Amino acid sequence: MKHITEYRDREKSAAIARAIADAAGATPMTIMEVCGTHTMAIAKFGLRGLLPKNINLISGPGCPVCVTPNEYLDHAIAIARRPSVITCTFGDMMKVPGSSTSLEGERAAGRDIRIVYSTLDALDIARKCPDKKIVFLGVGFETTAPTIAASILMAADENLRNYFVLSANKVVPPALAALLAMPAKIDGFILPGHVSAVIGSDSYRQLFGMHPVACAIAGFEPLDILDAIREIALQISSGNPRLHNSYRRAVTASGNAKAKAIMGTVFEPCDANWRGIGMIPDSGMNIRDAYSRFDAACAFDVEVEDTTQPEGCRCGDILTGRIRPADCALFGSSCTPASPVGACMVSGEGTCAAHYRYGI
Amino acid sequence: MCLAVPMRIESIEGDSAVVDVAGTGRSVNIAFLDDARIGEYVLVHAGFAIKKIDEDEAMETARLLNEMAALAKGELIAES
How many CB pairs below 8 A link A and B? Predict the structure, then answer.
C-alpha cells in the first residue's frame, strides 16, 4: 500500500456518496470542517458536489495563517526590517497583507526574507550565517508546533545564539469550544486528522463530554473525508453524537507522546487572538521562560505600527462559517489571489483561495 | 497546515531517515517516533515524521471501503 491512491477511487467515492445520502435522509444539517487542509482537499476533489442538498458543508477557522491577526504580521515585518535579520517563513505567509505591507512587499524592498519548508532549513541558515539573526515565523497548529519546539531544543543543544522564533502557534480544541458557544448552529465537525495524529483522539473527550456533538476525525484523501461525512451524517440523523476516529491508520487515542512532550517542554499555553473570533483563552502557545533567549518577541525591541483592518474585509465571518466567500463583496473583485485584501484569499489553505481556485 | 504526506522509510541513521517520495529520496527527522523501521510508512510534515502509519488499520480501512463499494454495486444492480 502507498497510502494515497487507495483512497482516491471513483467507484468507492460514489459508493460512499450513496451511503451519505442514505445516512443523512432528509435532515438538514450543517457540518463544519476545522482544518485548512480539509478546506483545500474538499474543494480540489469537488466533494461538495457529491453531497445531498440537505448537507451544508462549511469551513471554519482551520487555516493557521488565516487566523493569525494583523498585529503578528506587523510585528514580524518590524523585526524583518532590522539589520542583519534573515526572516524564515512558510510560503503562504509571504503574500498575506499586514496593515500596510506584506512580507513579499518587504522582500521586494530588499529585506532578507526566505521561504523554508521546515524549521530544519532555518536552523541550517543560522549555522551557516553566524553573523546574522535568523527569525522563524512560527505559525501553525499542533501538527507544526512540535517541529518548531524541536528546532528550539536543537538550537539550545548546539548553543546557537542567532536562532529565534516569533510564535503565533495555536491549539485547536479551545477554538472548537469557542465555536460551540457561538449562536450559529453547527451540527457536526470534521476534525483535523494530522493535528489529531499528534494530540490523540482523547484530547477531544473533555470538550465533547461537556458539549456532545457529532464528529469524526478525518484523513485527507477523498475517501477519508467522504467516509467521515457519512459517519457524522449518521450520528446527526440518528441523534447519536459521539467522538469517532475515522482515520485509524494515523490517529490513536493518545497521539504522539514524544511530540507532545517536546511541545510541552518548550511551549506553555497562553491566551491568543484569532482573527474573526477574538481572544480565546489558553488557545495559543508561548515560548517558556527557560527558552526566552530564542523568543523573537523578547530578543527584538521594535516599534510596531498601529494595526488596521482592511475595509470591507470579512475574513472573520468566513473563518467562523457565518458567510461563504461569494457573500463577501470583495471576493473575486478587489480581493483575488494576485491582490489579496485578507488572509483567507491568499493562504494556501484559505477558504476564499479554495473557492476562487476550484470554484466550489 | 495539516499537510503531511505518507512516505516510505528507505534507510535510517540516528534521528534521521531517508524516505522515498515518488522515486526521490529525501531526508526526514524521525526524533518524534519511538521505533521506526525500514519499509514502514510515516507521515511527514515540514521535514519531520509525525506519526507512523498503522498498516493493519490501513488494511482494515481498505477492506471496509471495498465492502462499501461492493454493497453499493449490488444495490445498483438490484435497482436496475
Answer: 135
